[in-house]
Design brief:
Structural class: alpha/beta
CATH class of the largest domain: Alpha Beta
Shape: globular
Order of helices and strands: EEHEHEHEHEHEEEHHHHHHHHEEEH
Strand content: 15-25%
CATH topology of the largest domain: Rossmann fold
Bound molecules: nicotinamide-adenine-dinucleotide
Number of domains: 2
Radius of gyration: 20 Å
Number of helices: 14
Helix content: 40-55%
Strand order of the largest sheet: 1-2-9-6-5-3-4
Largest sheet: 7 strands, mixed
Distance between the termini: 48 Å
């Protein structure tokens, strides 16, 4: 698969502000952008060395175009590809990669390029954050989930045996290059996971985006060359506006990026309880349904929100069956994860609810109460 500048249209450019520090960056969204990676990596700097970090699936598809673009801009490139999947997001792989940067003689003025899904972005971003106390990195997200979510906001991490993303940092990319052409090769199931995160952005910040996603599902799965970049850019803009208001997740009172956890408290617990059965985005979709149900049960919003979320998940070809995860052995497994949630502050978790679409609210809740509330409010 190649992407060339000649096949590209003008990219949409979004600014992500990091106000307290001189760390703002631009996100470019469009067709054919991967072939312009070298230009991006050398913008305002002398060409030096680049560590292109990817996974073995993505490197086969896009490694050549990325590498050639970097080399054409005068960079000397080392390429490393990890095994695909969450298992690569661990400290051993992180240290191996840092060791390879040392062995290749990279220095403080060089750059790490993350080419892949959210696993590669999180891992390579943490490599860049730690190597020599932090060097530049560029995000080239290739899964829809990474394009609309993981690559924007500066959170980088690996997992520890005790939980996901427990060893991490904020390290803002110098630029994010979102080439929507690469979604042609992304399996539909992975595309659906990204759509779930886009739906979350709509539910949090824009009823219009929420509705557009449901209306254009066919075109999105067909990778429509006009609609896909446009809706990706809108979703990124919604997330970017949120993280720009609260770059380091310090804002209290539900005003900051904490609201991005919508659907993730229950979603993460279901994902963990499912073993490998559900992908992250699929579990987040069920978490959105749970958030809608709980919001109604707590009197935050009018009845009908859960039905709206279920209709949207159905339109986007995502799982909708929440109740099997609330009962029996599966329910017990979900409950165990909920009660170990790292986001627990004292005896409560900051559950994100909705007063309606586009109106996020925080609900401090004891984790042990979430599942019983969801069971009691079940429409069955
Ligand atoms: N940092 C953040 O703010 C943030 C936000 C959300 C998720 N995440 C993290 O992101 C990770 C999940 O990311 P993901 O869903 O992208 O998973 P992933 O990186 O494992 O990618 C999913 C699969 O798609 C393949 N793939 C990626 N792009 C492809 C393409 N264009 N064509 C064909 N195959 C392709 C990958 O090789 C992999 O097999 C999790 O570790 C999660 O914690 C981070």
């Amino acid at each position: 698969m190649t992407t060339s500048p000649s096949s590209s249209t003008k990219p949409l450019v979004l600014d992500v502000r990091v106000p307290s520090q001189d760390l703002s960056y631009q996100v470019r969204v469009g067709s054919g952008l991967l072939a312009r990676l070298g230009t991006e990596a050398t913008r305002g700097r002398e060409p030096g060395r680049a560590a292109l970090i990817s996974d073995t699936n993505v490197i086969k598809l896009y490694g050549t175009v990325a590498r050639q673009s970097l080399e054409a801009a005068g960079l000397s490139v080392i390429t490393r590809a990890v095994e695909p999947g969450e298992a690569s997001k661990r400290p051993e792989v992180l240290l191996e990669l840092v060791g390879e940067l040392v062995a290749a003689g990279l220095g403080r003025r060089d750059v790490v390029v993350a080419l892949g899904g959210g696993v590669v972005g999180d891992l390579a971003g943490l490599v860049a954050a730690l190597f020599m106390r932090g060097i530049d990195f560029i995000q080239c997200p290739t899964s829809l989930l990474a394009q609309v979510d993981a690559s924007v906001g500066g959170k980088v991490a690996v997992d520890l045996p005790g939980g996901k993303n427990l060893l991490g940092a904020f390290h803002f990319p110098r630029a994010v290059l979102i080439d929507t052409d690469v979604l042609q090769t992304l399996p539909d199931r992975e595309l659906g996971c990204g759509l779930a995160e886009m739906l979350k952005h709509g539910a949090l910040f824009s009823v219009e985006h929420f509705e557009q996603l449901c209306e254009h599902t066919e075109a999105l799965y067909a990778r429509d060359p006009v609609l896909l970049p446009r809706l990706v850019a809108i979703s990124v803009a919604l997330k970017a506006a949120c993280v720009s208001r609260d770059p380091l997740e310090l804002a209290g009172g539900g005003k900051g990026r904490v609201v991005l956890n919508l659907g993730h408290t229950v979603g993460h617990a279901i994902e963990a309880a499912s073993g490998l059965a559900l992908r992250h985005g699929e579990a987040v979709g069920l978490g959105l349904r749970a958030a809608a149900r709980l919001s109604v049960a707590k009197g935050l919003c009018e009845p009908g929100l859960e039905e709206r979320v279920v209709a949207a998940l159905t339109a986007l070809r995502l799982p909708t069956e929440l109740d099997p995860w609330l009962h029996g052995e599966q329910g017990e497994a979900v409950q165990r994860v909920l009660c170990n949630d790292k986001k627990r502050a004292g005896a409560t978790v900051t559950f994100i609810g909705l007063a309606g679409l586009g109106e996020p609210r925080t609900l401090p809740l004891p984790p042990a109460e979430i599942l019983p509330l969801l069971r009691d409010a079940s429409p069955r």
